[in-house]
């Protein structure tokens, strides 16, 4: 029994957990339902919940987990990243898409798109921030995380290659954190009236 436990605990987790697509489909179904139903409260709930989760996870990973990972030994870092990436592979992209899409439809329903300038500037700021964060997340952070995780799963990972990938990664994560704080300021302004 002890030998089988050791062998199973040493096994690498599957990088892409396809069964998570059911959760993605369920989240997207809730978003579509909120859009089609047309209830502002329900659409706002989807926007706020996905935004809180996305922002909270982003900030926690960037400002708490990131510094800890950089300070631990390479084997610990490797184990942590190999286990974290499969969990966040579908979660963070889904939350970013839900947040931005629900926010857009909410802004349209609440008439924010027709606001005059300078009030519309707050909407424009939100659009720019969500677009930049989504492009960074889907176009850089996600592929880099997958490449690092794949490299770490090799019998002899290329440390310098991982180091090069991760050096830029931390700056992008830091910029994501700053943009998350900026969008919280914008959302607080929108919530209290422009």
Automatic annotation (TrEMBL):
Record bears the keyword Transmembrane: yes
Swiss-Prot/TrEMBL keywords: Membrane, Transmembrane, Transmembrane helix
TM spans (from-to): 20-42, 48-69, 81-107, 119-142, 169-191
Protein name (Swiss-Prot/TrEMBL): Uncharacterized protein
């Amino acid at each position: 029994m002890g030998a089988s436990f050791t062998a199973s605990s040493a096994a690498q987790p599957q990088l892409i957990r396809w069964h998570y697509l059911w959760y993605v489909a369920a989240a997207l179904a809730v978003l579509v339902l909120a859009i089609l139903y047309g209830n502002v409260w329900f659409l706002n709930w989807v926007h706020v919940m996905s935004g809180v989760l996305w922002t909270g996870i982003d900030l926690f990973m960037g400002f708490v987990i990131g510094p800890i990972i950089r300070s631990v030994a390479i084997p610990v870092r490797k184990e942590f990243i190999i286990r974290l990436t499969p969990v966040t592979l579908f979660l963070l992209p889904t939350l970013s898409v839900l947040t931005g899409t629900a926010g857009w439809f909410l802004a349209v329903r609440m008439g924010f798109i027709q606001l005059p300038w300078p009030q519309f500037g707050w909407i424009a700021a939100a659009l720019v921030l969500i677009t930049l964060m989504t492009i960074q997340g889907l176009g850089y952070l996600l592929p880099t995380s997958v490449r690092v995780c794949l490299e770490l799963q090799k019998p002899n990972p290329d440390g310098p290659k991982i180091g090069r990938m991760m050096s830029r990664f931390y700056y992008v994560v830091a910029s994501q954190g700053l943009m998350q704080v900026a969008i919280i300021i914008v959302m607080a302004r929108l919530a209290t009236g422009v």
